[in-house]
Every structure is written in C-alpha cells, then in structure tokens.
Amino acid sequence: MKLDWFLDSEKSVMKQRYILFRRAGVFCAEETATGKQTSLRTKDEAEAITLLNTKNEATRQPAMNLQIAQVYLQHADATMAQRTWQDVMDAMFPLKTGPTQARWQAAMRDKAFDLIRRRKLIETASEHFFQVLNSGTISTNMFLRRLHNFAVGMHSLPWPVLPKLKWPAVTHKEKRAITLDEHRRIIEREHNPEIRAYYQLLWHLGGAQTDIAELTAQDIDWKDRTVSYQRRKTGVPVIITFGAEAASVLESLPKFGQLFPRMARIKENHRAKMFIKRLKTVNITGISLHSYRYAWAERAKTVGMPERFAQQALGHSSKAFVRAYSKKAKVIVPSLEDYEVKIVPMTAAVA
C-alpha cells in the first residue's frame, strides 16, 4: 500500500514540468527537464504552491491559457479584456496638439492598421504585428511602436506583443542638404516674390517650413537685427541674428502682420507639393523643404559655429539632433602650426 502511494507520487512529480524548492527562505521553481531555476519571489508557502501550480497548468493546457487570463483580467478590469487597438489610437489622439495631432490622425488612417484595428489587445500575437509591418511602410513601423509602448505603459496590455529587440529596424531614406547652386537655381526660376522670399529666408534662417511661413513683422527686431519665434513642434524659443542678405529680403516683405500671408494660409503638405513642382522645372531631385535645415546646419558646422548656437538656431535642445543634421558637413582642420601663429600672439596680448 505504501509502495503504491510512493509510486503514484513519483509519477505525479515526473508529470510536473516545475517542482518547488526553497533557497535562503525564498521559494523557487525548477524546470525538471533543464534544471533551470526561477525565483517565485515569495516566502509564503501557500502562495508559492499556487504560483507553481499555475506554471504547471500553463504547460499542460496551453490552449486554455488565454481564456484563463481573460477571466482574471475581466475581474481585475472589466474594460481591459474588450479593449481594441482602435481604442488605443483614440486614447492617444487628445494627447497630441497642433501639426503633430494632424500627423497622428493621418498616420492612424494607414490601411496596414486595418489588420489589427478591431482586434482585442489581449488577443494580439506577434504574427499579427508582423503582418501589419510587412504590409506597411517605415511610418507604420514608427507609429505601431508608439501604440504598443503606450498600451504597455498604461497597463492596457499586460505583456509586450513584441520584445524590444525583435522589432524590425527603422531605416529611413537617405536625406541630404540643398546646395547653394541648387538654391540659386530655384530662386532664379521662382517668379512669385512672396514664394521666392520664403525660400531665401529658409536658406538664411534654417527654420522649419511652418515656423518661417508664420513669421510676422513683429518677430523682427531691426535694432538688434534678430528674428524671434517659438517653434511650433517643440515649443523651444529661437532668436537668430540676420545678416545683410537676409535683411534685404526682410525689407521687401510687409511691415505689419504676416510676412508670408499666402504661405501661412496653406498646409505643410501643400507647401511641400509646391516646392516639388518647382524642383521639376529646374531638374533637381532628392531634396525637400526640410533640406534647407540640413543645409543651414552643415554650413554652420563648416565655418566652425559653436554647437550651442546651432542648437538655438534650429530650435532643438538635443545636441544629437543637431549632429544628425550636420553629419555630412565637410570641415577642413587648419594646420596647427598656422593656428598657433594666430592664437598664441592673441593670447599673449590678452595676458
């Protein structure tokens, strides 16, 4: 009788994938097949047994795991079990403002998201995400990451669908700055005074297309020869001094109200389309209005402008961002011998 009980117990243990043991007062689970040990993070025996039984049950009935999880979630949060990815999209929309909100709304209309739009969060598997990523674009990858991170961060999703290292890499198309020759060809071909002046200020100030389009006469300080504005995207204030060429352009613009009434009225994508049409007339490819910012940053780096000034002019507090803009700038390091000839006498004179 005792032998039969012992054999039944041995068979029961053999069937279990995990067994319980205690180490330094803390209960742990050991996987019988591999010997891998995992702490259950409890010193309470009853709690440890419950956790161990849950781990063993999960291996015996994998098909029922999701249903069991849904039952627990239903009692913990009545809405969690029913929440879809469309709910996450709707929850994130009010958190955006201005142009960022408009871009978010447009991104959420991506047809690739239709594959998961009505799918419940807790029923989403990695293969569903891969289907979205394979049918979408680089933008799909970026916005799906934001949706996923928001859901995990808000505990709407009890577990990550894709581990961080398993996400496909985001590879952007190569971007470049507009050259001085290209800029001159565009200006020469553009006969509309307002649009021509707009492109010229983009070249001289390096501002984002909307920030420059919405400049007003009140933003110009002729006494200090500065242009001041607040970036719409980041909220960072920008104060930049202008030179003689930029002053000549500013003098040709309205003395009151908006400097570019027409450009300020139209949306970003329309300004971008106008620029692309102009590029076709002068046989230029591979650039956009944003290329003016790259050009400004590269020019600043080439002439040795301190990075803190470039940050201020571009309206970004991140040094990494400014470096990304100017990474293609060609900087010729002067001869140390010649540099010493110029610097040492100056240092001695100051002393």
Q: Main beta sheet, described? A: 3 strands, antiparallel
Under the CATH scheme, which class of the largest domain?
A: Mainly Alpha
Instruction: Return residue spans where pLDDT drops below 50 for at least 5 consecutive residues.
Output: 1-14, 346-351
Radius of gyration: 31 Å
State the strand order across the main sheet.
Answer: 1-2-3
Put simply, the count of helices is 17
Order of helices and strands: HEEEHHHHHHHHHEEEHHHHHHH
CATH superfamily of the largest domain: Intergrase catalytic core
Query: What is the level-2 CATH architecture name of the largest domain?
Result: Orthogonal Bundle
Brief descriptors of the model:
351 residues, mainly alpha, Double Stranded RNA Binding Domain, hpI Integrase, Chain A, 3 domains, three-stranded antiparallel β-sheet, 17 helices, disordered N terminus
